[in-house]
Fold this protein.
Amino acid sequence: AQTVTQSQPEMSVQEAETVTLSCTYDTSESDYYLFWYKQPPSRQMILVIRQEAYKQQNATENRFSVNFQKAAKSFSLKISDSQLGDAAMYFCAYTSYNTGNQFYFGTGTSLTVIP
Amino acid sequence: ETGVTQSPTHLIKTRGQQVTLRCSSQSGHNTVSWYQQALGQGPQFIFQYYREEENGRGNFPPRFSGLQFPNYSSELNVNALELDDSALYLCASSSLDRAIPSGANVLTFGAGSRLTVL
C-alpha cells in the first residue's frame, strides 16, 4: 500500500521569510500524482499545488513551489515570502490511476507564521 | 460556480446510534468521495461514488455506507456508532473521466461535518 510521511508535525516561519515542508512517500508505481493541500481553521481543504510524476520540471504556483525528487520519493513544498494567511495545516497527498481514485494523505504539518 | 457544501456542520450522537451526513458536489462534478479525518490525523479514504455506484472503498467496515443521487449529491451513513467514529467527515467532489488518470481530477473539498460520539 502507498504511504505518505510528513515528519514535521509543526513548523514556524517569520513573515516574509521562506519555509520548506517535507514529504516522503512509498510506492512501486511509476505514474502517479502528488499534491499539497492546505487546511486552515475553517477546515476546508484547499489545493495548493500539484505535481505529475512523469514531469521532471518542478511545479510552481506563485509563492509556492515544490522540489520533486522521484528517485528519492521526496516531495517538499517551499513557501516564499510567507504571509499570515499561510498559517494552516498542510497535507501532502498521493494518488494514481491504480489506487482506484483514492488519495493517500500524510499526517500533516502545522505551519505558524510569526508577524 | 457553487462549491462543495456539507451538512450538518456539527453534530453529537451517542454510541449505537445512526447518522446521515450530506454533501452537495461542485457544479459540473460527477464524483463524490468521502474521507474521515480523526483529530491530529490526515484524511482517510472511506469510499467514492460515481454515477450512483460505489467506485472504490477504503478499509472501513460495512456499517459505513453511502448513496449518490442523480444530481450527484451524496450521503454518508454510519450505523451502530462507536466512540472511534468521532471525527471530521470530509466530502470531496471531482469530475471523473475514465479516459484520464484519476490524479488528473483534482478533489474539491467541503468544510466537513464534525461528528462527536459520546
